[in-house]
Amino acid sequence: MKAHLSAPSNxxxxxxxxxxxxxxxxxxxxxxxxxxGGALYLYTAFNNEVSTYRRDMNASAYDAQFFxxxxxxxxxSVTAAMLPSRKAxxxxxxxxxxxxxxxxxxxxxxxxxxxPFWYLLVTARDRQLLDLQQVNILHTSISTGKTxxxxxxxxxxxxxxxxxxxxxxxxxATAARADxxxxxxxxRPPGDDIxxxxxxxxxxxxxxxxxxxxxxxxxIETAIRWHDNSRHPQNYVLLTPTxxxxxxxxxxxxxxWYSHKEIPQDSFYYAWDNRLPSHLVLSKAIGEGGWRLxxxxxxxxxxxxxxxxxxxxxATVLTLCTLVALIMHQIxxxxxxxxxxxxxxxxxxxxxxxxxxxxxxxxxxxxxRNSGVPLVSNEQARQWxxxxxxxxxxxxxxxxxxxxxxxxxxxxxxxxxxxxxEHQGHEVALCAVxxxxxxxxxxxxxxxxxxxxxxxxxxxxxFIATMSHEIRTPLFGIMGTLELLSxxxxxxxxxxxxxxxxxSSGTLMRTxxxxxxxxxxxxxxxxxxxxxxxxxxxxxxxxxxxxDRARAKxxxxxxxxxxxxxxxxxxDELRLRQIxxxxxxxxxxxxxxxxxxxxxxxxxMDDSQVTLCFQVADTGIGIPPEHxxxxxxPYYQVENRSxxxxxxxxxxxxLFICKRLASxxxxxxxxxxxxxxxxxxxxxxxxxxxxQPASQFLLPRTVYVSGAIQETILNLxxxxxxxxxxxxxxxxxDEAQAKGALLLSAWPPATPAPDWxxxxxxxxxxxxxxxxxxxxxxxxxxxxxxxxxxxxLLLLQEHQPQQSLNPTRPFEASLGLRVMVADDNMxxxxxxxxxxxxxxxxxxxxxxxxxxxxQLEHEEVDVVLxxxxxxxxxxxxxxxxxxxxxxxxxxYGVTASAMSDERKRAxxxxxEDLLLRPLSINTLHDTLQAAIVRGRA
Length: 937
Prior knowledge:
Layout: H1 18-80, E1 82-85, E2 96-97, E3 100-101, E4 103-107, E5 117-123, H2 124-132, E6 135-140, E7 147-149, H3 159-170, E8 185-187, E9 196-202, E10 212-218, H4 221-224, E11 236-239, E12 245-249, H5 255-260, E13 267-273, E14 276-286, E15 291-298, H6 299-305, H7 307-358, E16 362-368, E17 374-377, H8 379-385, H9 391-398, E18 403-407, E19 413-423, E20 426-435, H10 436-486, H11 492-522, E21 531-533, H12 535-545, H13 547-552, E22 556-561, E23 569-571, H14 573-589, E24 595-605, E25 609-618, H15 625-628, H16 654-664, E26 668-674, E27 678-688, E28 702-706, H17 710-722, E29 726-729, E30 742-745, E31 759-764, E32 778-782, H18 786-797, E33 818-822, H19 826-838, E34 842-846, H20 849-856, E35 863-867, H21 875-884, E36 891-895, H22 900-908, E37 913-916, H23 921-936
Parallel strand pairs: 22-24, 28-29, 28-30, 30-31, 31-32, 33-34, 33-35, 35-36, 36-37
Antiparallel strand pairs: 1-5, 2-3, 4-5, 6-7, 6-10, 8-9, 9-10, 11-12, 11-15, 13-14, 14-15, 16-17, 16-20, 18-19, 19-20, 21-23, 24-25, 25-27, 26-27
Helix pairs in contact: 1-7, 7-10, 10-11, 10-19, 12-14, 14-16, 20-21
């Protein structure tokens, strides 16, 4: 009997489809967002148009309601002016005055059988008002069926119409209503060709034979028509309580529709035709008789007025979809295809390892434990069992050790594993025979596989670095070019387009950075770089970084630091800045108006460490309670928080990464938020105390502090008092103390500015400090640098010249530096050259480290900017060679790699720091400015 082991599987894994799937999902999501945005815009535009029609219809309906109410009140007034009399001769009319009768008594009824006569008291003013309103007073007798004019003559009432009115009123009760008033009835007799309505009420509710008093209301169309004839068609219908059409005009719904359709009172709705809305309808109750006025507008008329937004949306959607297709194509060509090629190489390595393991020789057999004869075996086992006698097999069966090593006659060694069992009534043993020689080969193969796995892990690390470089490098070209373009003359529309592209590029940059940060964390490359830092300078630097963005959005951004905070602590400044940047950026993004404040205070301090709390508070839209516990989860975003094109949605990784970084520093992040009021996020972290510099106190002097925010005024007073100055908040009336005192104007300044005649020190953002002082008593300092404030005060007390107090604004004065740029990428060279030229620098270009080294042998430069990854000689080697030659100028590395060990390696090679692409002109200016200060020191 033979048994064969299953052959090793040679099936290969198919190439991963997830990246392609994710790319398609991303494209579909973007297209979906574009279509949803377009649909939302169209929906909003349509609703606005509908709202306009609704307002117009409501206004017209209100005027019609007012018209009907006035006529009903007028009829009640006329009825109240009618008096009964037992005499057939009417009372005497009042004496004329100025040729006109002031009060006229007009007979209404002529009766018999002892019934009273009814007369109407009418003044001249009443008659003028009736004529002006085209209203005539009528009396209808039920007994005779006749209707006569009491005042005016009107258009005349045909006999048939008079008969219909009398028959209609005869069926109506004359008793008072529940509210005590006499009933009112609006009439539109059939067969009456004149555009008029009749309004009736009983003359005497106690005497039905007294008849009915009414009003003939003419020119009714002017009261119920729409106001704006140029914009709206005259589509209306007046209905009785029984759904009969009284008056209608324009292209409206089928009049029979009103007779069979149950229309709710005082409603605004759509009329449907074959499951599609056909008209926009407003139904309004008119008067006390249950009549209704219905206005309608065809839906196609609304669309005709709102077709322009449709064209705009279609053009925008097509443009954005085309842009998404182009971006997806570039991502597939530049990212996915190289990544899949590298994955195929890893597959080849895995296939080789699996083949070696599956091909290891193993023999299996069943041996009779009494005779040592093999009963069942496979080909490998027979090669071992039949090659030797049975003596050693019996010895092996008697040995109870789980694994036995045996040496055969031919010198080969086997490892025998024996498991006693029964088979077909015989005592047998299941033996597994392994050639130790082959096992050694397998071990060597496994060791090789381990080395390859380590190589694969290293390849993953290299993949992260490569992806960072390959993505950031073209982004540097895009964002750098956009930044340079923003410094040129552009139209308002072009500047809006540029702003949109910059926002989208910034969002893409943040998404890539956050994704790479997450990849580094999962790969175990997250390490802290501990160094001495100033918490106060860090706070002011973050506020300065976002000041322009907040000011452009109309938001007030300021920072407040406790004056007791130590000057130096030990921590990872880059990670702290990353957390604060993310929190401040989110606060500005979701704040539509008001302010964003970054506060720093001490929670606890001893001789060795201090516990600090960085608080970012805003007056934004807030976060609902049900979303707050998920706020720090990866890829989580609160719905309906991105508003407008200036607030593009992010990746949902920023706060998650901040939470990880805070935990890495043994700190915590907490959030308190109220929808509609704002959000406050606290970063609490304990840091060791650093080496504290010697304190420098200023000479005692009275300084008044003014500003728009009381919190900043009090905070500056605390700092000034700590430096030895007598600081007081400025109050109206302190102008008299100007002699010998100094007024410090905080940022943002107070409005109106104090009328101060003495020395004044103004704190302004760097971009708003003038080149020269406007007067000998006017001085300036950086609003985002407390050390600059202290230096300026020190110079003032030492009576230094005015020009030494006013720093030149960035970008408006030439830095005057000679800068060497070493980079093998022509796009990077061009952008860096133009940025440096804009800053007033002279640029020397080198295509690699070797070329830069040769040029520096006979050229003198102030700063060296070198790419890290270059052919022939990279940036690390260039820095090491220059430092070995005692080169003193600052050297900065420029790279797109985001690996944490790159910065340490750069400093070990003699570089001042490592600059990460994309590199903005502000960062470049600050770096060169720091190099100038370092060179002077």
